[in-house]
Amino acid sequence: MTSSKSANSGQTTAVDNKKPQEQEEEIDIDLEAPETEKAALAIQNQFRRFQKKKK
């Protein structure tokens, strides 16, 4: 009987962890900053390289 109780509580925890957060964290990023633009270009280049390797 004890094992079924722990299994049920484990299932409840798993279900609770799957719920999405209702409040989103607000992030303040200056999209006009030169550092942001450089970072975006670097990420895009890496992604393009990854896509080429994938083919």
Structure, explained:
Helix content is 69%, strand content 0%. The chain has helices at residues 2-18, 34-54. It is flat. The mean pLDDT is 76.
Strand-and-helix sequence, N→C? HH
* Major sheet attributes: none
Give the proportion of residues in helices.
55-70%
What are the low-pLDDT stretches, counting only 5+ consecutive residues below 50? none
Record the SSE blueprint.
Elements: H1 2-18, H2 34-54
Brief synopsis:
The protein has 55 residues and is an all-alpha fold. The chain is 69% helix and 0% strand. The mean pLDDT is 76.
What keywords describe this structure?
single chain; 55 residues; mainly alpha; 2 helices; 69% helix; Calmodulin_Regulator_PCP4-like; Si:dkey-46i9.1
